[in-house]
Specification:
With 504 residues, the protein is α/β, with parallel strands linked by helices. It has 14 helices and 20 strands. The strands form 5 sheets. A 5-stranded mixed beta sheet has the order 2-1-3-10-11, covered by helices on one side. A 5-stranded mixed β-barrel has the order 13-14-17-18-20. A 4-stranded mixed beta sheet has the order 4-9-7-8. It comes from Paludibaculum fermentans.
């Protein structure tokens, strides 16, 4: 199969950089439905711009390209070992080209393989079928939304919703709770794949498989079709909004399957996917490996622009921040302020924060901006370039952040999804702020990086290293200020109150 490698590489590239038409359509509807001028509408506008940028530059829509998961159907007699080998080769090449971020980390040593290959990565599922062609479907689901997957064992008690029993009414409560608990951490507006029943392991697998349905299809089971529509409508009344900033759109799709279960078990498994809902597929000639058909997209159909205007419209009310920052500067900011950062910042996520708990930083962080980000980087000669650089979920740094603020003088933290009470107290004590970026907007933010000034702690691997960046007009919103105010806590409480009204 002489064209197999190139076909698979093209599948990976298109999946990472070109959002499917059904997702584009759903995001377009979300943008029209959201109230102009709100923070949620601003976030959706940036998402639309980012979608256009990714397609134009063939760059990753989101820097977190997840755990590549392939679903492969082959005719009887086709050598699946050859296909598996070529998938791995294509994944490694896509990583080298910057279409995938190196995400495969050894769970025992913590070492990043650097090429997305390793024990059980990428994930490949094979099935035979009675067709002449090979079909390969691919989903790239990032860690932020993967962490918001959730599984319920019925009966159970749920926050704000009370008792959920072993019936469709109980299932409905579980799914609504899954949307509510994700808030902005899963990069809302999201999409859900749900499995009712099965066992714990297979239920999660079947839930993820529901994400291969198009957002505009209709469930052949009338009861499930009605439940899918009901969930989307009710979820969008919660007030979560894009990125959990408050607003009218939290969900762009919900797809539900039911599977037989054991009498003793009743699981509801939920696979949460973000707005950067990346899945595509191809069919190939079984002898040559050439692509005969694309799934979810028509390559002959022109890709329409999502954004109404290029870039982010400025109002003149934005606050310019030029590091190094001081506590006095930060105490002048309040929740809701939009800032533009001009100057230097450092990336730092899980490995960096754990390191700083036991070791001094390799750079002076006094007055610095610390960006929760694991970028996609490419090296050309001796110089590094940022290919994708959106924020990662900040809640993972909650155990460390207050100490980092206190010990090293960091004055601004950028991430997505917000942080908790410990960090909020640290911000107030130290005179610092939390700045919320738009999750998944990896191309939008990459274009603000004018130069890579250096890299530290590179042994942690590209995503986890501490990158020293020079940025221009890096846009973010103050969502936790130095006075003890948190937009995230407010939205969680308000949406929880609305959820209470959905008990019935």
């Amino acid at each position: 199969m002489e064209f197999l490698f190139n076909s698979l590489l093209e599948l990976i590239t298109q999946t990472s950089t070109n959002l499917p038409p059904d997702v584009r359509a759903a995001m377009g509807i979300a943008l029209k439905q959201e109230t102009p001028g709100t923070q949620s509408h601003q976030a959706l506008s940036i998402m639309a711009t980012n979608i256009d940028m990714a397609h134009e530059d063939q760059g990753p829509i989101c820097q977190d390209t997840g755990m590549p998961t392939f679903i492969v159907h082959t005719p009887v007699g086709v050598n699946q070992l050859v296909i598996k080998k070529k998938i791995k080769e294509a994944v490694a090449e896509a990583t080298r080209l910057g279409k995938l971020r190196p995400n495969s980390v050894d769970s025992l040593t913590g070492k990043n393989s650097g090429n997305n290959l390793g024990e059980e990565t990428p994930v490949i599922h094979f099935e035979q079928w009675e067709h002449d062609e090979i079909e390969v479907k691919l989903v790239l689901k990032g860690g932020g939304c993967e962490n918001k997957n959730i599984q319920y064992s019925l009966p159970c008690d749920l926050d704000h919703l009370g008792k959920a029993g072993r019936d469709l009414a109980g299932v409905r409560k579980c799914i609504l709770h899954a949307v509510w608990q994700a808030q902005g951490q899963g990069c809302a507006p999201g999409a859900l794949g749900v499995c009712i029943g099965s066992d714990r392991a297979h239920g999660y697998d079947l839930a993820k498989m529901q994400l291969f349905r198009t957002l505009d299809d209709v469930n052949p089971n009338p009861e499930l079709a009605a439940l899918e529509a009901e969930i989307v409508a009710e979820a969008n009344r919660l007030g979560i909004g894009a990125m959990g900033l408050g607003g009218g759109v939290a969900l762009i799709g919900c797809k539900i399957a039911a599977a037989n279960r054991l009498p003793a078990s009743f699981f509801v498994s939920v696979a949460y996917d973000c707005w950067a809902f990346r899945r595509l597929g191809i069919r190939m000639d079984a002898t040559s490996g050439v692509i005969t058909q694309w799934l979810y997209r028509d390559p002959e159909r022109p890709v329409e622009r999502m954004a109404k205007e290029t870039g982010f419209p400025l109002t003149g009310r934005e606050v310019i921040l030029t590091p190094p920052l001081t506590a006095e500067m930060m105490r002048q900011l309040k929740v809701g302020d939009v800032v533009l950062i001009r100057g230097e910042m450092f990336t730092g996520r899980d490995a960096v924060h754990a390191y700083l708990m036991k070791n001094p930083p390799p750079v002076d962080l006094n007055g610095a901006v610390l960006y929760h980000c694991g970028p996609v980087m490419l090296k050309q000669g001796e110089e590094w370039f940022v290919k994708a650089a959106g924020p990662t979920t900040s809640s993972r740094e909650e155990p460390y952040q207050a100490d980092v603020l206190r010990n090293y003088g960091v004055k601004a933290v950028i991430g997505k999804g917000g942080m908790g009470k410990k960090t909020l107290a640290g911000l107030k004590e130290c005179g610092a702020v939390y700045l919320h970026g738009v999750g998944g907007a990896a191309q939008f933010y990459a274009r603000t990086v004018k130069k890579v000034l250096g890299v530290h702690l590179f042994d942690f691997g590209v995503p986890e290293a501490m990158w020293h960046l020079k940025v221009e007009d890096f846009m973010a919103i103050v969502t936790m200020d130095a006075h003890g105010n948190s937009l995230h806590a407010e939205v969680e409480q308000a949406t929880g109150d609305v959820l209470e009204t959905m008990k019935a």
